[in-house]
Amino acid sequence: MSIGPHIPTQAFTRHDVIDAFAREIRGAQAAGVLVVIFLRGGADGLTLVPAIGDDGYFKARPTLAVESAHAIDLNGYFGLNRALQPLEKFYKAGELAIVHGAGSEDHSRSHFEAQDCMEHGGHDSVAAGSGWLGRYMRVRGEAGSAALSAVAIGTTRPESLRGAPSGAVMQSIRDFSFGEDDPAIIEQLAKMYAAETGPLGAAGRETLDAVKRLREVRSQNAPPSNGANYPDTQFGRGLREIARLIRADVGLLTTTIDLGGWDTHFVQQQLIGGLMSELSLGIDAFITDLGPALRRRITLVTMTEFGRRLRENTSFGTDHGAGGVMLTLSPDSPGAYGGGTIRSGWKDLSPSNLDEVGDVPATINYRDVLAPVLRAHAPGVDLSRVFPGHAFDRA
Amino acid sequence: MPTRRTFLQTLTAAGMAGAVAGCEQTWDGVAGLIDTDADGADFRPPTSQEIDLVSHAINRLTWGGRPGDYRRVSTMGVDAFIDEQLHPESIGDRRCEFIANQVESMLQATPELYDIPPRQLLADMTRYRLLRAIHSRRQLQEIMVEFWSDHFNIVSSKGDCKWLKLADEREVIRPHALGSFRAMVRASALSPAMLIYLDGHDNKVEHEGERPNENYARELLELHTLGVHGGYTQKDVMEVARCLSGWSINRSAFNFRNVPSRFIGSRHDDGEKVVLGQRIAAGGGERDLERVLDIVCGHESTAKFIATKLCRRFITDPAPPQAVETVAETFRDSAGDIRRTLHALFTSNEFREPEGVDGGRRGLFKRPFHFVVSAIRSTGAKSDAGPAIIEALERMGHAPHQYPTPDGYPLEEQPWLGTLLWRWNFALGLQNGALNGTTLNVAALERTLGGANQVAAHLLGRMPTESESEILNQSRSALALLLSSPAFQRY
After folding, report:
1. How far apart are alpha carbons A329 and B15 in whole angstroms?
2. pLDDT at position A25, please?
3. Whether B283 contacts chain A with CB within 8 A
4. Cα separation, B465 vs B442, whole angstroms
């Protein structure tokens, strides 16, 4: 690895070299930005990706089953809900992988418990750190502790990011403004941190770099690139901010954003259609906005705390279930992570394949879906520290 | 003749607190009068180019020196100051009590807490912790409260810990923070919040359908006493779990909201055990707990583990081996007397002349809570320690009572280096009055200390360097710049 391009031609100090190394590390790893979308409330996998080739599906859901006409046939058995049509092209191109029957070992069917289990990486409070993303960032070492290396879009820090060396929470890039009333303070701080040796000095100089780049991004306030059209919702605006952060090259390595409202106990169809559109249009706009050069740097994963009961309830809704759907999208890397295919943890919906409550079981552990993504983003990462106690399925 | 102070104390005791509660301006005024330190105090900051021993002691034993602290400690002497702080019971702290007790829920009995929504109670607990750190004259006591809260960490969001965490702070952490280590471990082992957090309440003798739960036993050895490399085995963990089986919480129908701990003999494994090579005879019943505590608290590894952690907080990180040796020896010889252990630490050569930046005396990195409190204290800002401050702490990932795993917030600096931007924004917000509920009078601060240069010397604990002065002189936001400077991030 050469640091040549970063070394000033004039005399340089030790700090310059350290900073050059820091930039090099960031530059090398900027190849990967992990975008995690958490569908809070327990998204119904059997509506997102219905089993249109299974009689058991239509029997269990006399009013809520997605008719074949409302689904895009993927492999004769599974279909993609038409409300997710913007994602179809990614699947066709081998960039979108679908996992059915994914979930965690938590059987409480409680949102709180199941989300905590998934975000902490287990219920075992002996687990090494805290949230799985937090630990992932920590075991990445220095690169994971830059000011803007881990960003949660929203108002509160999600459990998954707990324990990150640096976990920023923001609704918009505006939250990062610094020194707007007194721009000189940035240069003055730069002088102070230039004289500081050790990790604190390096962290200060890195942070000031990020502030300057963000200032440029904010001042441009350009519309999304390539004609991207985000949904005008909190989720859509959040994705747009992520695209701006990636474009600004602030050292972002992982980001997480929520799309809530999937807890469809009651009149499911009225609730879920809009959410699916918001999800798919948002993702499509995000990929469009990033454009061909930047989109290849991201991997996008959706997860949810659990799927929903196969049998619909008497309120035209579904209750808390077990296995759900995870999506992995890796633009311009066809075939990566099983792109273009559906992997399912169950053969069909006959009773013997369901768990004791009558749910699609969570036979594919969410950690095993994430593991190859993390390995690709951080080669050599010690996954036993990210997910302690988990026996990884290398299949 | 009664002094003004005793007069005001009488007034307050007579119910004035109740009369003025809720009227911030009034109680703030009254509280100001109670603070007798203000009378004739000498506010001159340090004049040395290096951090002298006085500034060093203030940095390490307080959450940040207030205006006037430097002269007060200079006058009384560093040794007397250390002695004073090691005996919090000798320090009058009426003003702090007055202010902190405005958070009324903190005075309620545990059963009553269940009427408070968890979110509100967490905000109250956080605010209470902040107010005490800002206002208490028993600064070392408040530092040790934080230290032990990390050591015996309990996240307030798990089950009944939402309400019982406060009881843990009141009955386990605070009373023992400078007391007996064994007594604190014992109180923690029986603390209902801990019994819930680490599943001890579910630890039962093995028989059909029931198994011991070794979660607490493991953390007792790994985090609370011997340390992860302290020389225990998985077998020891299981044996300790057997010894502690049967300790649970009492949720009787009549006082289901009062949750004391209790020993249930039928759940206890009363067979013989061997813990760390020591035999515990069968039939010990609840006395097994005392035997386990004697063995683990008196273990060589525990002395070393606690000494190391204290040295990392107060001297340098990693801890200097010689100091660990000295401090561990005192811990051992005093049977875990925390006060005497800290006295040994503060009188060690390594404490007085530590290695590190700024002449060796600013080698430690302030965690966000420390940064926020020291910024408020040292600038003399008035703060309600309300939502704006709590939000800043949450944003920096360091709000009290919210660390999810039993190891507590990390001590090392690396995990906190990403919080600089939030610190700088906090500093600017503090100077510009953008933090709701917190106000700062920069002109008054300059007047009190004698000028802008003196403000710098006060905040840095030494005269600013030439280049620092040059930068500060050009700045419109000199105070924020000082609070944002590398030097202020250290202590």
Report:
1. 66
2. 44
3. no
4. 21
**Is B215 an interface residue toward A (CB < 8 Å)?**
yes
Q: Tell me how many residue pairs between chain A and chain B have CB atoms under 8 A apart.
A: 124
Supply the pTM of this predicted model.
0.77
pLDDT, position A253: 94
Mutate to test the interface with A, among B471, B473, B474 (most CBs of A within 10 A): B471
Of the candidates A126, A130, A165, which has its C-beta nearest B218's C-beta? Answer: A126
Q: Which residues contact B111 (CB under 8 A, 6 or more apart)?
A: B255, B257, B258
Q: Are B69 and B58 in contact (CB under 8 A)?
A: yes
Q: CA dist B413 to A2, A68, B365, Å?
A: 29, 57, 6
Q: Does B265 touch chain A (CB under 8 A)?
A: no
Choose between A281 and A29: higher pLDDT. Answer: A281
Q: Give the model's confidence band at B4: pLDDT under 50 very low, under 70 low, under 90 confident, else very high.
A: very low
Angle, alpha carbons A20-A255-A135 (nearest 5°): 80
Q: Report ipTM for this prediction.
A: 0.88
DSSP 3-state of B344: helix
For residue A260, the SS3 value is: strand
CA B220 to chain centroid: 20
Q: B234 touching A, CB under 8 A?
A: no
DSSP A132-155: HHHHHHHHTGGGGGSTTSEEEESS
Q: Which pLDDT does position B207 carry in this prediction?
A: 84
DSSP states of B249-315 = E---GGGTT---EEE-GGGS--S-EEETTEEE-TT-TTHHHHHHHHHHHT-HHHHHHHHHHHHHHHT
Please measure the distance between the N-terminal and C-terminal CA atoms of chain B and give it in whole angstroms. 43
Shortest Cα–Cα distance, B209 to chain A (Å): 19
Whether A325 and A45 have beta carbons less than 8 Å apart is answered as: yes
Angle at B464 between CA B463 and CA B466, to 5 degrees: 120
Local structure of A300: helix, strand or coil = strand
Q: Which residues, in sequence order, are bridge partners of residue A319?
A: none
A226: left (phi over 0), alpha (psi -120 to 50) or beta: left
Alpha-carbon distance B76 to nearest alpha carbon in chain A (angstroms): 34
Closest alpha carbon to A31 in A381, A383, A376, A380: A376
Task: Count other C-beta atoms under 10 Å from residue A194's C-beta.
Answer: 17
The residue-averaged pLDDT of B200-219 equals: 87
For residue A40, the distance in angstroms to the closest alpha carbon of chain B comes to 19
The pLDDT tens digits for A161-192 are 877 777 777 888 877 778 888 889 999 999 99
B434 close contact with A: CB closer than 8 A = no
With beta carbons less than 8 A apart as the criterion, state whether A276 and A83 touch.
Answer: yes
User: How many percent of chain A have pLDDT more than 70?
Assistant: 88
More confident residue, B403 or B388: B388
